[in-house]
Design a protein that fits this description.
Length: about 260
């Protein structure tokens, strides 16, 4: 309780004197664990040469920006606001590095396109066998491709849709859904409409993929922990996660609010 009061006092002091570097630094130290948390989750499954320390550095820039721009008077928890900005900062830096091979990007687009075409034709989620046949691959080759994509891709559910606040900040869709007490960040597109659209897309996923999405994004389990729950390897969970994201992208591709994802 005392710690919460101290943090509230810090915010009150900082809101009246944003040039006070000492106050800003104390807030950075207070919320630094958020950066470590986000970097750890985004770093899961990325190639070994992507150092988590670098992700933390990128995320720290997002945290600093969040602290400098946050308004305590708004009815939005700082943690919700900061996590979205930390994620955005890390993802922007990774994209700027352009380290994802073109062949992997192309393969991800091919799989997403095949999923969309098959679903329009058969009116259900296509099986691995159907996707592989459409692509002229074996199921093993499809799984290898999914593994390559999962190792290289930073696409995630919270990138599928973003909404802009009146202040010009991007708020991740998944954060908007999770924080049910937060106000609508964009008047022209209601939270209810967004929830229904993405909720419906998730509900139509195959059961195991739906479970992976639920455990990862809503229960916040790691891929390794999900593997223990499902009784499969972490790499298999990563494949299921990648398939789920590609399916969701394919289904939401017609939305004007969909983020343009780079693969």
């Amino acid at each position: 309780m005392a710690e919460a009061e101290d943090t509230k006092s810090l915010w009150l002091q900082f809101s009246t004197n944003k040039d006070d570097k000492a106050l800003r630094d104390r807030l950075i130290l207070t919320y630094a664990p958020l950066v470590k948390y986000v970097a750890g989750r985004l770093g899961s499954g990325l190639p070994a040469h992507v150092d988590e320390g670098d992700l933390v550095s990128y995320g720290l820039l997002g945290l600093i920006g969040a602290i400098e721009r946050y308004d305590p008077e708004r009815d939005v928890k700082f943690e919700t606001y900061a996590i979205a900005r930390i994620k955005g900062s890390i993802i922007d830096e990774l994209r700027a590095m352009d380290w994802v091979p073109r062949s992997v990007r192309a393969r991800a687009r091919d799989i997403e396109r095949a999923m969309a075409e098959l679903e329009r034709k058969i009116h259900r989620a296509p099986t691995d066998e159907e996707i592989a046949e459409k692509l002229g691959l074996s199921v093993d080759e499809l799984n290898e491709a999914l593994t390559d994509i999962s190792r290289s891709s930073i696409a995630a559910l919270d990138e599928l849709w973003t909404v802009n606040t009146s202040g010009g900040d991007s708020v991740a869709m998944i954060d908007t859904i999770e924080d049910i007490d937060a106000p609508d960040p964009q008047g022209s597109l209601s939270q209810t409409e967004m929830k229904e659209a993405i909720g419906e897309a998730i509900a139509r996923l195959p059961e195991r993929e739906k479970l992976v999405v639920t455990l990862y994004y809503y229960e916040e389990l790691t891929l390794r922990e999900i593997g223990e729950v499902l009784g499969v390897t972490e790499s298999r969970v990563s494949q299921l996660h990648t398939k789920a994201i590609l399916r969701l992208k394919a289904r939401l591709s017609g939305s004007t609010t969909r983020t343009s994802l780079e693969h």
